[in-house]
């Protein structure tokens, strides 16, 4: 695969920002890895980082390139800071950047498909929240979404990281429904919205485990289908996420019916 470290100016953020990109490359002579590319616009996975990380972390901590190469999928890894993928009360408009500007800019730079059946999102921890939030708020954009050890109840941040919570969601404000995964799922069920395929996983000793089982049960109660996995004795750790991102990539519906481009 081609690995591109891309710096560009964001009109939404008003500053320069960074995104790491993996692009499919058809290869057969690389030792230990074979690349695949359809020669058309690439199916694309937006891969989101956690609270203490940045756009470089997936390449530094996992073998995501090796997992993605034989599948012919592009991977977009943006830098979203500690924003919880939100237009911050005191900060930058990272939700608008993620959901509007980033896809438009990346599709102008790289040969990425803009079709729903070719577009996916996944993330870990804060990024798991971001992935499900994006999929629930813009379900027509994605064919599938995955949350790895996701922060499903952001209200809990008010106790864990109160300063971040105030900067992101505001001082003393009730969490808006647009930022609440439980409320977004309930709204989708009430409106009978067609949702992307959902994949959720968490370790049983992760500090976010109870949030994840609560959201799993919430989806079940709403009649929203999802794939759920948990791993006994696993905490909030990269060895687990490395295993899981390989599973997620193989779970993605990458080989569905294709229309002519």
TrEMBL record:
Q: Name one Pfam family in it.
A: Esterase
Source organism, top-level taxon: Bacteria
As one GO molecular function, the record gives: acyltransferase activity, transferring groups other than amino-acyl groups
PANTHER family associated with the record: DIACYLGLYCEROL ACYLTRANSFERASE_MYCOLYLTRANSFERASE AG85A, ENTEROCHELIN ESTERASE-RELATED
Q: What is this protein called?
A: Esterase family protein
Read off the lineage from the record.
Answer: Bacteria, Bacillati, Bacillota, Bacilli, Bacillales
